[in-house]
Predict the 3D structure of the following.
Amino acid sequence: MNYPVWYLPDIGGGILIALISIIHVFLSHFAVGGGLYLVLAERKGLRENNPAMLNFTKKHAKFFLLVTMVLGGITGVGIWFVISLVNPAATSVLIHTFVFGWATEWVFFLVEIVAIFVYYYCFDTMAPKTHQKVGWIYFIAAWLSLFVINGIVGFMLTPGNWLADGSFWSGFFNPSFWPALFFRTFVSLMLAGVYAFITTAFLRDKDLKTVMTRYSARWVLVSLLAAVPSGYWYLSILPSQARGLVEGASPTIRLAVQYGLLGVILLLAGTLILLLAKPAYHSKSVSFLVFVSAFLFMGAFEWTREASRRPYVIDGYLYSNTIFEKDLEEINREGFLHEARWVSTRAVGEGDQLEAGREIFRNQCYACHTVRGLNNPIVLRTAAMDYPALLNYLGRMHDIRYFMPPFAGNEAERKALAYFIIKGLHGKDVAVPREQSQTAQSEGGQLFARHCVLCHPESLVKSRTAGWDRSKIRWALDNLNKLQSAMPDFQGTPREKDLIADYLHGLQTAGDPESAEEGAEVFERSCAVCHTLRGGANPLVPKMSGWTKDQVRVSLDHLEKLKGGMPPLQVPAAEKEALAGFLYRSLQGESR
């Protein structure tokens, strides 16, 4: 909140960071493992007195130099550029905490640059023994560079005792340091074999191609198998909340893990074929398939590691929206707009709720949500909510979904944010609905709106629970996480669960004859100005011929997409249910 926001409403800064960092990590890990591959491949060629193998190693060294020094260098600079714009607060913490660590890493990187240039350009002119030493110097410097970066990157996920003592060494040798170092080392060696598949595919000497294909496949297979126990070790030391996200509590992480497993399966299958079954199958297309599989695996790992820090960017210290946890209490007391430096509105007034809400969205929500773009579009996530439901949710979202930062600000600012999303983005009415009697069903509906409707619109729940009796619905409310690992268990009282169960069971009979009067009232108020049921200039029933009740209900949420472009129906969900039942009975000839 002390820095300006680089606002890209349709893309989101998180997508840019993910895109550049995943590519860079895929290149930088190759820069570590590929250095050892070069040294050992050259050693193999010297021991076997095989000039063809040495010539291949030299060509692979050129490929290695171009990929790691050019593409790796560009994406490395790109990461610094993007993170300093997207999350300058976190970047500042990393620089000030580990300034000498960064300086040390840059010395190692300079040694890498000099060593790889000497290694390639002196391949044929330097004595083999000396040349090998240069290769070893490169690999050791590259691995030490990984050693340093691993400590700094791991600190963001598991800062450990640094939160208490602020010590460089506590932050650097954090709880995830050693498991992550072993895992990344094995992955680096695996990628050395994967990249070697690319250059091996261009060999014309069939015998050499077979030898180097199998040699590279051993690198991939052995390293991949070695990465499994270190990966499990890595997972086991994660904080419980982060481990829960990785194990399925977050839908996006669960999807990333699925893609990662697919990548591992394809990578393993391709490697086994090239190693054991048919090295002759090795072609440019096969090497590309293995390469893409490895990228999928690496991308899934990096995405999961980054996302598992939520709601923080530095666990327990700095939220993803650049608000420090220690400042939250003061912000709630004094107001977010009053404390933020780079906002045009300093307080919420009667006439500037929209602008104040827009400022709060940019500073608190945009870190994880675009408006209608690629990354968690807020319009899609809040489509089923009305103003009271969203207002209530904003006050409790961190309790309901741990991986979302708590709202920071006073009551007026929370209302302004809800106003901006509901009125400014959705164009919905923000008037509070008329008071309903406190029956079990209406109270259950209020509980449903507060806890469930953000992810589960009534129409979806109704279709998913079709045919369920009340006892099964009640059982489900006690076992949400077992039904779907991404759903948190509902932390309500038994009475609240009973009320929600009554409400959800009531959805199955919503719109029956006893609610016809309400449905008819909604029709007269919202539809009759343009439509009749039958006859007249614009009858509805003939247009719905053959529709199911669910089709009728869903159409009420998307009127603007139907033929003729009707305006959206701005009524509460309960009234839409009543209207849907009324229209469906009219379709069946049962209106009264």
